[in-house]
Amino acid sequence: MGPVGGMPLPPACMVAMAGGDARQAGEELGPWLRARDPDRFLCALFAPPDRRWALFALYGFNHELARAREVAAEPTLALIRLAWWREVLAGAEPRHVVATPLRAALAAGLLDAGALEALILAREIETEPAIETLARWRAYLLASAGGLAAAAGGLLGADGAARARLALLGAAYGAAGVLRSVPAQARAGRCLLPADLLAAHGLTPEAVVAAPASPRLDPVRAALAAEGRRWLETAGPTPLPRAWRAAALPAVLARRDLARPAAPARPRGLGARLAVLLAALRP
User: Fold this and answer.
1) What pTM did the predictor assign?
2) Counting runs of H as helices and runs of E as strands, what totals does the chain give?
3) Cα 34 to Cα 112: distance, rounded to the nearest angstrom
4) Coarse DSSP helix, strand, coil percentages of the chain, rounded to the nearest 5 percent
5) pLDDT tens per residue across span 182-208
6) Superfamily assignment of 129-283 in CATH?
7) Residue-by-residue DSSP string for 186-238
8) Any idea where the domains of the chain sit in the sequence?
């Protein structure tokens, strides 16, 4: 297969990799990531410089997995896109803006292929017509956004106990992200809210797609925000050892978002960016 989505490798990355400079290639990914996942880009800036390029690659990989269903006309095509990334993990080396530095990070031992495979598997539920139960919704977020945060922590040197804590923080950020994305998902004809919780409030995924701003959805938003806040509480206070604190910083944004689950998604303002900065620099 060729590069997914027709995404050619930028010339700067091609030059860097031709010279064997994986770190430079990963750093060149920064502007690309900033345009697509500004939250995680901001948080990654506080990672140690010698690991930041690999963190950019990991977050770029996650963005491409999230896009698999967004850009596919039908679920089977989304699964094909996910299978392409499995080929990359298995050793394929396409010239691709994310795959190239990702392979370099794997070769350097900074990322674990098994953990990345688990992230691919976690995304398969997005190809199904609905997330049927709250239990499956929880498992989806712990494996996807939670697994991503744990992988980021591992890259930065966090031990097993710390990675488990990071998975909770990441899942909370994922819950906030699902709530923020309800209107965007509805425009694409999709709903990532658990069908059983919707049914308990007299709603269906189809009703959410038809009217994502309906006040009838507010109790569902509140219940799911409470799930996210419980993950934050279980994980404990956000300040963590500075070496791998960058992996936890998205939780700073999650805490703010989950306090206002019905608020419309907007670009991050100065207050949100300052909150991340203060958490990153805290002793």
Assistant:
1) 0.91
2) 16, 0
3) 24
4) 70, 0, 30
5) 999 999 999 999 999 999 999 999 999
6) Farnesyl Diphosphate Synthase (1.10.600.10)
7) HHTT---S-HHHHHHTT--HHHHHH-TT-GGGHHHHHHHHHHHHHHHHHH--S
8) 1-128, 129-283
